[in-house]
Amino acid sequence: MPVTLKDVAAAAGYSVTTTSRALGGYDDVNEQTRERIITVARELGYQPNMLARQLQAQRAETIGLVIPQAAHQPDDDFFSLLMKGISYVASQHQFDLLISSQLTPQDELRAYQRIAGGRRVDGVIVARTMHDDPRIAYLQRNNYPFVVSGRSAPDEPDDFPFVDADSESGIRQVVAHFIDYGHEHIGFISSPPELAYTPYRLAGYQHALADADLPYREDYVAHGDMQQESGQKAAADLLARHPQMTAIVASNDAMAIGAMAAVQAAGKQVGVDMALGGFDDIPLARHITPDLTTVRQPIYRIGELVAEMLIQIINGEPPEQTGILLEPKLIIRASSGQPLAI
Amino acid sequence: MPVTLKDVAAAAGYSVTTTSRALGGYDDVNEQTRERIITVARELGYQPNMLARQLQAQRAETIGLVIPQAAHQPDDDFFSLLMKGISYVASQHQFDLLISSQLTPQDELRAYQRIAGGRRVDGVIVARTMHDDPRIAYLQRNNYPFVVSGRSAPDEPDDFPFVDADSESGIRQVVAHFIDYGHEHIGFISSPPELAYTPYRLAGYQHALADADLPYREDYVAHGDMQQESGQKAAADLLARHPQMTAIVASNDAMAIGAMAAVQAAGKQVGVDMALGGFDDIPLARHITPDLTTVRQPIYRIGELVAEMLIQIINGEPPEQTGILLEPKLIIRASSGQPLAI
DNA sequence: TTAAGGCTCCGAAACGTTTCGGATTACACA
DNA sequence: TGTGTAATCCGAAACGTTTCGGAGCCTTAA
């Protein structure tokens, strides 16, 4: 039904080859012929079949991103922002973006195989890296172009291109800031152990304490799943067990906001009786009351950088540096409260 | 370099046809043969080339979405939410989502032509409809499957599948709510005239006034571009010109939040000296202080419905109803303030 | 007069699948 | 012995492009 090159060729009275070359701008076709062919093509409303073209060119001009189940909450900002950064850069390079949402981790790996192995995309972006991430193993093994938003865990090789914010430094900054304010009993709400950045963030907490000669107490660390509710539960738990605690740092903003609710539910006031800090600086952090002290991770920018690197790799221009570690910035807001009187 | 069906066939000692049929689960191949072929395919790490498959099947199992420049602000929630709804449903039906970000409206139309005309996707979703939208004209003319998130303007035909929230009813509800609270001088920050829903929202404002026998004053209407700053400017303008104004309704939440800033800058207090209402109920509306009275438009749900309809159409099952108009829900929050004393 | 070269054009192959329409073999049955 | 049938396999065409390698013709120069 759709009009093909063959139709245009027939209507114009030339071969398919010449028609293709005329439309393609080659100079071995007579100018009048070209004009005639272009006219006919336009009249017929010819649109080249991208699939056929890509198959022949062995190139899709497309990058892929697989979105995990976990990012499906309507209020998860991380992937939305990352995607905007990616798609903006992609569009500048005339690339499209293929999104494959998947509901289970197994589906996720299969999606990468289908998409990258099936040549639907020229390269993929891997986000939310896990410990021993099978996706990275697969992509490396098959030599498919990819860039990681995130990093591998400290005990793993990181011989692949990635862009990440420095988790260790980020958490260290918030904790140091609270120590600076005079806090000595600071709780930490950690992320799930399977996430690759978890050890870095925990190390940031530990190092900040060590720098100030404060003891690291394992019972000051609670665990959440990055969702708001888990932060609330973790904070409630910490408060109940350690009434002397005056500050809590969470591994991300969502959990910090959950913690806010827990603090208020315990009859304490955030920024007065209890200092609170997060990580990410999602848009909400600025708008909630009291607004949240956090560490700004430039997610949109990371998306841009990741896409930039991937397209370079696809184009056969390996980027100068394979691993980019961005320094996150401490943003002090009302949830810090005032320095404690001594 | 990648392993193809031909490689598997050669390694297994069968023809390409048999190999294809073995892998495809057809019953005219001997069970032992099938097992042998499957084993070989696995050993070689065979991944079918999706492009070739799609070309042959004349079907991409993919739906397309073009993201306009306007949605590129990191804090634009609308498209992020819509996309999550779409991609969730798409994944349930084993469809992928092709995103094409475009920077100018002309590029946008070209992107639809490339994507739909070029058979990269089986159907597309059109969002943020304009007056006399050329994308809809193009898609209709070429009989490409598509569903619109939004609606055509009141003076245009709407003989195509769409899902939209009832803009007229939504704005009417907020305005009526303020009238109910005793306000008589209510301003309106309208959306740009080229957007298809603008006349509906304006009509909602007018009808609510008429229902209460309040006069419609054209100078009570300001215009914005849906961005936060424009709402701030529009509100500042209204406040300066009409000191008697006690309430402002904006065409979307972003502009209402901008208006909040303007009201505060004018030394007035939102929810006390000035009632404020928006439209959308973006996540921020709930978290800002004071939290914003608005009309909830189920964007995520609209994305789901739109995708559901599109996939039905692609599968040749025309949906029972072509136009779905969702009733938005008034959400009363602190920015409404208290009913005025009479 | 002929060879060389430039200008236009085109047939066929290739990209990697799926599918249509047989072909071959073995076996049972008349 | 010949025929029908089921089981198993395969060649070739098709999807719509691009590209390789030439072919034909006309002009120019030796």
Describe this protein with a few key phrases.
alpha/beta, 434 Repressor (Amino-terminal Domain), 6-stranded parallel beta sheet, 15% strand, Rossmann fold, 342 residues, DNA-binding, homodimer
Strand-helix topology:
Two copies of one chain form a homodimer.
Chain A: H1 5-12, H2 16-24, H3 31-44, H4 50-57, E1 62-67, H5 77-92, E2 96-101, H6 105-117, E3 123-127, H7 134-141, E4 146-149, E5 162-165, H8 167-180, E6 186-190, H9 198-211, E7 221-223, H10 228-241, E8 247-250, H11 253-265, E9 275-277, H12 283-287, E10 294-296, H13 299-314, E11 323-326, E12 329-331
Parallel strand pairs in A: 1-2, 1-3, 3-4, 4-5, 5-11, 6-7, 6-8, 8-9
Antiparallel strand pairs in A: 10-12
Helix pairs in contact in A: 1-2, 1-3, 5-13, 6-7, 8-9, 10-11
Chain A binds a DNA duplex (30 and 30 nucleotides) through residues 4-6, 14-18, 20-21, 24, 28-30, 33, 48-58, 119.
Strand order of the largest sheet of chain A: 2-1-3-4-5-11
What CATH calls the topology of the largest domain in chain A is: Rossmann fold
Q: Can you tell me the number of structural domains of chain A?
A: 3
Biggest interface? A-B, 50 and 50 residues
Largest sheet properties of chain A: 6 strands, parallel
CATH architecture verdict of the largest domain in chain A: 3-Layer(aba) Sandwich
How many helices of chain A? The count is 13
Order of helices and strands of chain A: HHHHEHEHEHEEHEHEHEHEHEHEE
Question: Whole-number average pLDDT of chain A?
Answer: 94
Q: In percent, how much strand structure appears in the residues of chain A?
A: 5-15%
- Low-confidence parts of chain A: none
